[in-house]
Design a protein that fits this description.
two-stranded antiparallel sheet, 19 helices, NCS2, UacT-like, transmembrane helix, membrane
Length: about 475
C-alpha cells in the first residue's frame, strides 16, 4: 500500500481551509437560498417563517455536506462535494403547496419518504455504472456545464428575466427592470477579469482562491458604488436554533410521496454524473461501491432535510466547476464549507451578509466555473474514438440536442402529463437517458463493461502501488 495520501484526503492548515471553504459557500449560496424563498412564498408563509426556512436550509446543507464528504460506514462519496437543495424538486413542491390538503407538512412527509427511498435505491442505481462509458459521461458532463451557464448568465444580468411579485393581492410574473443593466454586466465583466488575472499572475495559493478574491473585490467595488445594501444584515438576528419538525409532525400522502420518489430518482441519476465528473477532475477512479455510498448520502441528506424543515438535497454542480478551476482536490475544503454552512444557519446575521453580495458579482465567477464543467466534459470526449467508430458522433450529437431542450425551450413539454414534468424538465436527465440508450443501440453493453473493467483494474493497481 502507498503511504502517500491521495489529493482528496489532503488536509490544509486551518486558515487556508477556511478561505477555500468560504469560496465554495459563496459559489453555492444564491442557489442554496433560492428554493426556500420560492417555496416559502408559494406557501404564503409570514416573513419570519421564510427567514427560518432559509436558516434551516443552510443548516441542513452543512449537515448533508459533512455526511457526503467525511463519510460514515456505507455512506458518503468522500470527494469535495457541497450539498444543496435540488431545483428538480421545485415544480412538484409548488404543486403540493397549491394543494390545500398537502401544504408544508405534506411536503415534509414526501421529502422524508423520498430520503428513505434514496437510501434503499442507492445500491440498485449504482449498478448502472457499466452504462456510463466515456462517451456517455463526457456528454452528460458537457451538458451539465452548458446547462449551468444559464445560471451564470442570469446572475451576470442581474437575476431572472422575470420576477414574482404581488399586485392587488395576486401573485404574478413581471419583467425584471434590473435585468440586463449595463452597470451589472460591467460589474460581472470586471469580476471575471479580476479572476482571470489572479489565475494567470497569482500563482500558488492566490490562484487557488482566485474566485473568492474576485467575488470579494467585486463586492467591495459595489459597496463603494453604493450598490451593496446592509439593511438586512442589521435587522438579522445573531442566533437561531434549528429544531426538528418546527412546523409540526410531517404528513404522508400517497401522491406527493410517489412524486417526490421520482424526483429522488432524477436527483440520483444527476448525482451519478456529478460523481463521475469529480472522479475525473480529481484523478480518483470511481467504482460502484463509491457510487453506492455517494447516492446513499443523497438519500440521508434528503431525510435530514425533511426532519430539519427543508427539502431534497443533491451535489451542487457549480462547486464541481470550482474544483476544476482551483485544482484543489481536498474533500476537507468542502468539510470546512459544510461547517461554515452550519454556522450560517445558526447565525442569520452572517448569512445575511453573504446574501448581500449582488448577483452580477457571482455571475462573473459563474462563467469561469460552469465553463470549466463543460470543458471537463469536452476533455473526456477528446479521448473517445470518433475516427474508427463514427457512431459515437451520433451518441454525442443527439444527446446534447435532447439535453438542450429545457434550456432553449422551457415550454417544449408543456402539453405532456404533469407527472412526467420532473423527468422532462431536467436537461441533464434527458441527456443521460438518451446517451445511455444510444450508446447501447450503437455500441452495446460490452464496450461499456470493458471500459469500466479497465477503470477498476487501474484503481486496484493504484491501491497496491
Amino acid at each position: 500500500m502507498s503511504s502517500v495520501a491521495h489529493g482528496v484526503d489532503e488536509i490544509f492548515p486551518a486558515p487556508r481551509l477556511f478561505a477555500l471553504g468560504i469560496q465554495h459557500v459563496l459559489v453555492m449560496y444564491a442557489g442554496a437560498v433560492a428554493v426556500p424563498l420560492i417555496i416559502g412564498r408559494a406557501l404564503k408563509l409570514p416573513p419570519e417563517d421564510v427567514a427560518f426556512l432559509i436558516s434551516a436550509d443552510l443548516f441542513a446543507c452543512g449537515l448533508a455536506t459533512l455526511v457526503q464528504c467525511l463519510g460514515f460506514p456505507g455512506v458518503g462519496i468522500r470527494l469535495p462535494v457541497m450539498m444543496g437543495v435540488t431545483f428538480a424538486s421545485v415544480g412538484p413542491m409548488l404543486s403540493m403547496a397549491a394543494a390545500p390538503d398537502v401544504g408544508i407538512l405534506g411536503i415534509y412527509g414526501a421529502v422524508i419518504a423520498a430520503g428513505v427511498f434514496g437510501i434503499i435505491a442507492a445500491p440498485f442505481v449504482s449498478r448502472l455504472l457499466p452504462l456510463f462509458p466515456p462517451v456517455v459521461t463526457g456528454t452528460i458532463i458537457l451538458v451539465i456545464g452548458v446547462s449551468l451557464m444559464r445560471v451564470a448568465i442570469n446572475w451576470a444580468a442581474g437575476g431572472q428575466p422575470t420576477i414574482m411579485k404581488m399586485v392587488d393581492g395576486v401573485a404574478g410574473a413581471f419583467p425584471n427592470p434590473a435585468y440586463g443593466g449595463l452597470q451589472g454586466i460591467g460589474l460581472a465583466v470586471f469580476v471575471l477579469a479580476v479572476i482571470l488575472c489572479l489565475i494567470r499572475f497569482g500563482g500558488g495559493f492566490i490562484s487557488s482562491i482566485a474566485v473568492l478574491l474576485g467575488i470579494a473585490i467585486g463586492a467591495a467595488a459595489t459597496a463603494a458604488m453604493g450598490l451593496m445594501h446592509f439593511e438586512k444584515v442589521a435587522d438579522a438576528a445573531w442566533l437561531a436554533l434549528i429544531l426538528p419538525f418546527h412546523f409540526g409532525a410531517p404528513q404522508f400522502h400517497a401522491g406527493p410521496v410517489a412524486t417526490m420518489c421520482v424526483v429522488m430518482l432524477v436527483v440520483m441519476i444527476e448525482s451519478l454524473g456529478m460523481f463521475l465528473a469529480l472522479g475525473d477532475i480529481t484523478g480518483k477512479p470511481i467504482l460502484q461501491k463509491d457510487l453506492t455510498r455517494g447516492l446513499r448520502a443523497d438519500g440521508v441528506g434528503t431525510l435530514l432535510g425533511g426532519v430539519f424543515n427543508t427539502f431534497p438535497y443533491t451535489s451542487f454542480s457549480q462547486n464541481v466547476g470550482l474544483v476544476g478551476v482551483t485544482g484543489v482536490k481536498s474533500r476537507y475544503v468542502t468539510v470546512a464549507g459544510g461547517l461554515i454552512m452550519l454556522a450560517l444557519g445558526l447565525v442569520p446575521k452572517m448569512a445575511a451578509l453573504i446574501e448581500a453580495v449582488p448577483q452580477p458579482v457571482l455571475g462573473g465567477a459563474g462563467i469561469v466555473m460552469f465553463g470549466m464543467v463543460a470543458a471537463t466534459g469536452a476533455r473526456i470526449l477528446s479521448a473517445v474514438d470518433f475516427r474508427s467508430n463514427r457512431n459515437n458522433l451520433y451518441v454525442v450529437a443527439i444527446s446534447i440536442g435532447f439535453g438542450m431542450i429545457p434550456l432553449v425551450s422551457p415550454a417544449f413539454f408543456k402539453n405532456f402529463p404533469d407527472a412526467l414534468h420532473p423527468l422532462l424538465e431536467s436537461g441533464i436527465l434527458l441527456a443521460a437517458v438518451v446517451s445511455v440508450a444510444l450508446n447501447l443501440f450503437f455500441n452495446g453493453l460490452t464496450a461499456a463493461e470493458v471500459a469500466r473493467a479497465d477503470l477498476a483494474a487501474a484503481a486496484a493497481a493504484s491501491d497496491h502501488a
